[in-house]
Every structure is written in C-alpha cells, then in structure tokens.
Amino acid sequence: MPSLAVILLTTALVVMVALLAAVGAAKLARIEGATYPAALRHAAATFAAVLTLAAAVTAALAAVRA
Question: Is the distance from CB of 22 to CB of 50 less than 8 angstroms?
Fold first, then answer.
C-alpha cells in the first residue's frame, strides 16, 4: 500500500500535467483566432479530458493488479 505522501505527490503531478495541457490548448486556440471565452472552453475541456484519462488509466491498472 503506497504511503499518503506518494498518493498526494502523484495527484499533484497529474493535476499539474492537466493544467499544462489546458494552458497549451488555450494558447493554441488563441493563436487560431478563437475568442477568450472559446479558448477558455477549450482549456476546460482539455483539463477535464486529461483528468478523465488519468482516472481511466488508474482504474485499468488497478483492475489488472487485482
């Protein structure tokens, strides 16, 4: 069983990666000429997608390990 510190650090890393992906998506949307609200929607969708992907991978790994 992993310690609490490992779980918290992994969670922080996943959130940071999701934030970086969201910022990149927003910047690319702005470069393509999207308005600020549209770029923010792109960023939010990307952030949610990365977190969903991380949760799905975690669930799959937990199912394989069990």
Answer: yes
Q: pLDDT tens for residues 13-66?
A: 999 999 999 999 999 999 999 999 999 999 999 999 999 999 999 999 999 987
51: CB partners within 8 A, 6+ apart: 14, 15, 18
User: Can you tell me the distance from the alpha carbon of 11 to that of 18, in angstroms, rounded to the nearest whole number?
Assistant: 11
Residue 32 is classified by DSSP as T
Query: C-alpha distances in angstroms, 23 versus 40, 55, 56, 57?
Result: 9, 20, 22, 22
Read off the pTM: 0.90
* CA–CA gap between residue 47 and residue 51 (Å, rounded): 6
Place of tokens 């996943």: 14
